[in-house]
Amino acid sequence: MKEGIAILSARIEDYLEAIFALEIHGQEATVTDLAERLKVTKGTVVSAIKKLVEAGFLDHEKYGAVALTENGRERALCVYRRHDHLNFLFSEILGIERSKAWALACIMEHEMDEQTDGRLLALTDFFCQAQREGAAWFNDLKAEMDDPSRLPCPLVMLRPGMKGTINRITADGPLRKRLLEMGLVPGSIITYIQTSPLGDPIEFEIRGTRLALRRSEAATVWIRRVKEDDACGSTPSR
Question: In sequence order, what DSSP letters do the residues of the chain get, joined into one string?
């Protein structure tokens, strides 16, 4: 194998993945099949196959089908598995439309290293098991993701009368310390009271105390909107 061949372009990895997908379905990979599957010309496929043969990832008889070598199959399995798990995570867990989930997986699969791949595999299997067992927390997670209004947003995006549960503080240094000392700690419910006539500062209420924050300060406090029947509860910090 040539030096440096471990670094393959994303497009070349697509060829390995396509050949592997055909193989595991009991089909031989021909130039015509690959051209149709990857939506490229036969000439482009021939050029890619030549590179993969030189790299030691493919065996190819002239005018015949191509076959993965042991090294090629190992590399193809890695790419195929990443795509499969990303696609599952996006479509089945996050609820993204299937064609869009597939496209996103195509983009991300080439940017992952071995450690990220392993963590993704563990996470996906964990979610898969929770889904299969009908875990309460998993159903709660799905419900949250299906309600965009409950997604975290900066405090400054609330409107008068709206309530939110503080999720996190993104400010650093002295400002972060001051905000925490003012009682803006994760899990606390805060209510947007009013905006000053000039638009800055904004008045809020937290734990029965009124406080004023500049818009730039309120933008660093992230909250999750709560409905009236949730107002007596709290959300764990992240």
Answer: --TTTT---HHHHHHHHHHHHHHHTT--B-HHHHHHHHT--HHHHHHHHHHHHHHTSEEE-TTS-EEE-HHHHHHHHHHHHHHHHHHHIIIIIS---HHHHHHHHHHHGGG--HHHHHHHHHHHHHHHHHHHHT-HHHHHHHHHHT-GGGS-EEGGG--TT-EEEEEEE---HHHHHHHHHTT--TT-EEEEEEE-TTS-SEEEEETTEEEEE-HHHHTTEEEEE--GGGTTS-----
pLDDT tens column, 140-193: 887 777 776 767 888 888 889 889 999 889 988 999 999 999 999 999 999 999
Residue 164 φ/ψ, nearest 5 degrees: -150, 150
Q: Considering the entire predicted model, what is its pTM?
A: 0.53
